[in-house]
Amino acid sequence: MLKNWKLFRRRTFLLGLGAFASTVFFAAATKRFSFYKKVQASYDPKRDFSVVGNASLRERAAVKGLTYGAFPSFGYNTLSHDKQLQSIFIQECGFIVGGFYWSVTRPSASTFHFTETDSFAQFASEHQMLFRGHPLVWHQEIPQWLISKFKDLRTTSKEIQNILINHVSTIVKRYAGRIHSWDVVNEAIEPKHGRSDGLQNTPWLKFLGPDYIDLAFRTARDADPKALLVYNGDKFDHDTPDDEARRIATLKLLETLKSKGTPVQALGMQAHLFGDKPLNQDKLRAFLSDVASLGLKILITELDVADNELPRDIDVRDRIVASVYEDYLSVVLDEPAVIAVITWGFSDRDTWLSRYPRSDGIPLRPLLFDSNLQRKLAWKAIARAFDKAPKR
Questions:
Q1: pLDDT reported for residue 45
Q2: Would you tell me how many other CB atoms lie within 10 Å of the CB of residue 25?
Q3: The domain that contains 247 carries what CATH number?
Q4: Taking the complete model, does pTM exceed 0.70, yes or no?
Q5: Is 239 exposed, middle or buried (0-12, 13-18, 19+ CB in 10 A)?
Q6: Within its chain, how far is the Cα of 228 from the centroid?
């Protein structure tokens, strides 16, 4: 009897284990099916990415009245010493972006450092590139002295106002006549913070109220009457509730700024895209049109396509990434107000997305050039988008 009971319990356990394994397998299979269903629209093994000729992106964009460029996240020292990188960068880019982060440019309240940005400005001039600055006012990448000032209960709004005015005025005056555009204010919107105006609860907002944005733009305009002044925002691109809320809040912000005469001239759309998130071309097209109707130009300022969650296979990944680039730009470049496309990084070896590695540990491939600076399908996708774009 005991022997039979033990045999029964063992069979029951094995049956239960089998059922559990089947459940786990089914859940995993369902997850994989759901994932591939999301990306299958972007993966076509027969999709044609051929391009005509060997012209650079700089040349292809210029033909259409556009400018292509990149943020050189590898730094000036690398650019100046790596001759292969330098040659390809000059060939491909008509724009170069200088990083004017407070933590670098203003390490103390009384000290400004411009060595890196001066070098990029000179490089741009020598190679007939446009130079742009990012960002003048942001709530991140700020130095410890400013963090302490924000936290000090004795700090007054007047002190913070003077710090902002001095900072913006000093930097913009230094580069007046040498710079194409400034990201004057960066990422001021966060609908999740629950304000009716959609603004993000930053220290600038805390001390100065919503008018800190107007103040930054007017200060920049006073310091340089000719530079293009840009509000640079994020998460406008995908068909998600969060992106929709940001589109609505950003339009509201831009309308408010225009109504009070704030000298905002353009919207910067960061366009950090995801290979596994859908685009809604109709919503994107409508948003671009609404921005343009305010009399604003549009720049795509930080374009890349994250492949962190895409399949391991390089051919599959590269095709999805390239498809996202081309599908996105096919909509964006139909809007005549769009004047520039700038990728956030130049090659896969210097992408900022490396801070978000893949779970399988293999290298990311989100940009137009691989780690050996060879053109990828993503390069062809953008080349095709430029070739098909209407002239400005």
A1: 86
A2: 10
A3: 3.20.20.80
A4: yes
A5: middle
A6: 19
